[in-house]
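Many introductory courses stop at the sequence. We go one step further.
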Amino acid sequence: MSPKRIALAALTILVLVLPAAAEAKPRPVEVQLLGLNDFHGHLERSTPGFISGVRAGGAEFLATHLRRLEAENRNTLVVSAGDLIGASPLLSALFHDEPTIEAMNEMGLDLNAVGNHEFDEGAAELRRMQRGGCHPVDGCQDGDGFAGADFDFLAANVVDRRTGTPFFPAYEIRKFKGIKVGFIGMTLEGTPDIVSPEGIAGLRFLDEAETANRYARVLRRKHGVRAIVVLLHEGGVQSAPGGINDCNGISGPIVDIVNRTDEAVDLFVTGHTHSAYSCVIDGRAVTSASSFGRLVTDIDLTLDRRSKDVTRVAANNRIVSQDVPPAFEITELIRRYDLLVAPLRDRVIGRISADITRTPDDSREHAAGNLIADAQLASTTPNGAVAAFMNPGGVRADFRAGQISGGEQPAEVTYGEAFTVQPFGNSLVTMDLTGAQVHELLKQQWCEQNPAFAPRVLLPSAGVKYTWSRSVATAIHGQPCAGAANPVTSLSIGGESVAADGRMWRITVNSFLAAGGDKFTVLSDGVNRVGGDVDVDALEEYLEPSVVGSPVAPPPLTRIDVAP
């Protein structure tokens, strides 16, 4: 072959090869997200409990699991879908959850969407969690300063009522090998119904799907972001049986929210319901890691270098087992706070003769709530109270008689155990309500409550007696209260019939309920209000005689009856 033909052949090969090389698809970018939700200050290895039959959780083990997973991919972020703090065990709560923020700093948490419990101590206190500084009343109880969170809080749908400005940044953008990923953080729109109204005065909580769509547009049009993740403190529940990586008949608010969200959103990391699931809803991945740091969701995102968008999502809920070495610095942090809290936590305040649990009967009445209501009534009888009502969501644990052997020896209750049952630090409020308002209060256990969840049946003190109709209650559950039939009949207090009239009755509730929390709005109309003890102090006072006297038995479940 002549030199010219050789040159032409070589040129032809070059022409054929170059386009093929140019068309070769660049390798995608693999990003790892490690998702948490509803940690609730469960730092100690003893408090989170079991999941899937495995003892799990504890911040010192969670840190180790996170670090091992992070070592698998340098493109990793640790993210949380809210309720990092609030309703926490005493070790964290006594110090206004500063220990949890410090532990999360050590673990390398990157982003946290606010949840409803982040507002338990009010908006100003939540800002302190981000910015740092000592508590305005209690100071820095551990003897040093508080630097605040190294990670960022996000709150796209929590806005100033006057200006519309988000309380915290609505979103954050992170880059992975030149590809932008946008994170939108939100809490549930219904947050005002389940936190103290005083703590969120001046704030509005917006629709979750509408907010996600708004900021997805901002991310796309203003910043050129194509890969979008929503960190959302709202969720759903599976039907039984459903494993930690299943999606068996998922239901709840998250289904509607995802279905109304623009397809530009690729992934939802969710929380609030304390459930575990790994779902695909409307073609998008939706995850939740149960609660208390017992699981971490290992999420792999595949990003296309050309489109800059997500092409694949793979999620796996992993158990935070306690069979790994604990992270030394987290162990030391816990030990330091444990030494400070131990004298208060371990003080015996009473004795019980058997477990007093939150297990409800068919009327939704349970012994733990009844006991708390009895304590609140006893504390406020000097203020004229004739009855007390306790919200079921405020009873966070059971009174366990774990030390009983063969049922012969009473079990001690420590202050720490009592605090675990009632961790919110609400004060008691005694007020006058008309008989008509008391009837309305009980009707509000169903009407305008979220029909996706169980009704909020209040736990009554001894002396309260009534019957509710299951059929009427079912008919009004989630419906407007105005004009709705009342399921409650035969209401009496102290043996006296309570008519729906203008006669006044002196009632005690906690400060959360007194401000209209849990949609018990009629309580905000109560008059002649008198403040009382902190709820856990009232419980301690009620149990105190049992330290040397007879142990307290579970209150009988005879205060509420249910009819067809």
